[in-house]
């Protein structure tokens, strides 16, 4: 494997920014120093020229739609978009077709990723009301965790039997990641607006249907159950300011038993954007108020919220263009998540160090991912070089998602990803993909 030397970079790592060089050999970081000379003539030298070198981002929640929903996306297409956006590792969700609710079906997804992924990968195992025996077979060192839908779900993945739920929480050794929205509250809200609007409910009512109350009831109940059973609980995609007060910053992340995530869309959009974006920003949980967006950012910065993710969940434009009741929730984000955060940095909302902490370091800590998430000697060389002063506009022509659209179309970002390394291989360089990466299945120090 060819050595890579990155020179003259501003290295953002572990709460500091230092100027220096990084040498990559045999897929790992071999040296970090103020100045390093190439050890051989065939070393690839990248002059960062003052750009910022970050550890590769780790996205703990994506839906890449394979198998079974490949008209929307594939592991290959979306992981390629991810590395172009600076995401070098991802954890994908189980609600594909078929659902990854048996060991055999889970391993089939790993097999697909081994052949086609551009980024390092792991998959969540899916819990149901009737697969506890399978859950208990999962190896915690080889699988990211257990995904439970405690509200909106697809297929039979809604875990709504209280006895089964408590049994899962009590017996599994896996980290439990939960989608928390109360189904009864959502159904009642939906019936109310159906009575008023019939089948033509305005998209602006999405955050009233999938309301603050629905989120808070479910999140608080999940936390109570985790506290009762001692389970390790990670609550996905908080969307309300009220929920942030359920979480604590009194312990370092490595010691927390209950943690939380926020997604890019909940940090960027508000309910006002439904007027122009429509169903393109229809997610579950819903994008809500400006107060919620600002409260989520505050909780992220004060460490009540531990990680940033995308919940990348593409659908075809034809599907999204349906009226409210038939337009699916979710949208593509992996290509634009990091540059959106860098835009927030330009606006004075978040530091570069905090972006790296929440989108690289902390996912590695939270999931106990081995040898990734930091720029450290001996660690896997998952690295991202970003130019903070190279404006570009998101257009259909430069989208890499299979679905061919983005809620960020027309947005001008000041920063861009120039290079991405996955396990020491330069897989993305100045809008091109010079090498096929050698992605690896993530392993976990548990």
Automatic annotation (TrEMBL):
The cross-references to InterPro entries, in alphabetical order and at most eight, read: Amidohydro-rel, DHOase/Allantoinase_Hydrolase, Dihydroorotase_CS, Metal-dep_hydrolase_composite, Metal_Hydrolase
Q: Which UniProt keywords apply?
A: Hydrolase, Metal-binding
Per the UniProt entry, what species is this protein from, by scientific name? Aequorivita aquimaris
Q: Which PANTHER family match?
A: ALLANTOINASE
Q: What biological function has been recorded for the protein in this entry?
A: Catalyzes the reversible cyclization of carbamoyl aspartate to dihydroorotate.
Show the SUPFAM superfamilies listed in the entry. Composite domain of metallo-dependent hydrolases, Metallo-dependent hydrolases
GO cellular component terms listed in the entry, alphabetical order: cytoplasm
GO biological process: any one?
Answer: purine nucleobase catabolic process
The lineage, from the top, is: Bacteria, Pseudomonadati, Bacteroidota, Flavobacteriia, Flavobacteriales
Gene3D superfamilies noted in UniProt: Metal-dependent hydrolases (3.20.20.140), Urease, subunit C, domain 1 (2.30.40.10)
Judged by the first EC level, this protein's enzyme class is: hydrolase
Q: What is this protein called?
A: Dihydroorotase
Ranges for domain Amidohydrolase-related: 52-427
Q: Name one GO molecular function term.
A: metal ion binding
Cofactor needs? Zn(2+)
Family (UniProt): Belongs to the metallo-dependent hydrolases superfamily. DHOase family. Class I DHOase subfamily.
EC annotation from Swiss-Prot or TrEMBL:
3.5.2.3
Which top-level group of life is the source organism from? Bacteria
């Amino acid at each position: 494997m060819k050595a890579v030397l990155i020179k003259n970079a501003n290295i953002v790592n572990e709460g500091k920014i230092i100027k220096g060089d990084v040498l990559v050999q045999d897929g790992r970081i071999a040296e970090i120093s103020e100045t390093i000379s190439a050890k051989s003539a065939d070393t690839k030298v990248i002059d960062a020229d003052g750009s910022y070198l970050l550890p590769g981002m780790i996205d703990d929640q994506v839906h890449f739609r394979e198998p079974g929903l490949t008209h929307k996306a594939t592991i290959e297409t979306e992981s390629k978009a991810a590395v172009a956006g600076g995401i070098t590792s991802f954890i994908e969700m189980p609600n594909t077709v078929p659902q990854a609710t048996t060991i055999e079906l889970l391993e089939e997804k790993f097999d697909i990723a081994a052949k086609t992924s551009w980024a390092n990968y792991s998959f969540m195992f899916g819990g149901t009301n009737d697969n506890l025996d399978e859950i208990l077979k999962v190896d915690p060192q080889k699988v990211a965790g257990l995904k439970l839908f405690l509200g909106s779900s697809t297929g039979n993945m809604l875990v709504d039997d209280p006895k089964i739920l408590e049994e899962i929480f009590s017996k599994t050794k896996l980290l439990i990641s939960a989608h928390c929205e109360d189904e009864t509250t959502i159904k009642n809200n939906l019936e109310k607006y159906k009575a008023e609007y019939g089948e033509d409910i305005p998209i602006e009512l999405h955050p009233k249907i999938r309301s603050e109350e629905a989120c808070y009831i479910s999140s608080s109940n999940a936390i109570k159950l985790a506290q009762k059973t001692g389970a390790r609980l990670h609550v996905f995609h908080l969307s309300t300011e009220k929920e942030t007060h359920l979480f604590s910053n009194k312990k370092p992340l490595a010691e927390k038993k209950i943690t939380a995530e926020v997604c890019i869309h909940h940090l960027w959009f508000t309910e006002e954007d439904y007027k122009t974006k429509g169903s393109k920003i229809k997610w579950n949980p819903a994008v809500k108020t400006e107060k919620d967006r600002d409260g989520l950012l505050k909780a992220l910065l004060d460490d009540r919220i531990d990680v940033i993710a995308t919940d990348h969940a593409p659908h075809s434009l034809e599907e999204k263009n349906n009226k409210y009741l038939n337009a699916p929730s979710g949208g593509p984000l992996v290509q634009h998540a990091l540059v959106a955060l860098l835009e927030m940095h330009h606006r004075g909302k978040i530091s570069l160090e905090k972006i790296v902490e929440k989108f690289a370091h902390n996912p590695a800590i939270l999931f106990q991912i081995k040898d990734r998430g930091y720029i450290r000697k001996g660690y896997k060389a998952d690295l991202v070089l970003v130019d903070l002063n190279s404006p570009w506009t998101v257009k259909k022509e430069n989208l890499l998602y299979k679905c061919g659209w983005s809620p960020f179309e027309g947005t001008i970002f000041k920063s861009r990803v120039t290079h991405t390394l996955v396990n020491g291989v330069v897989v993305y360089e100045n809008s091109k993909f010079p090498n096929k990466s050698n992605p690896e299945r993530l392993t976990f120090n548990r």
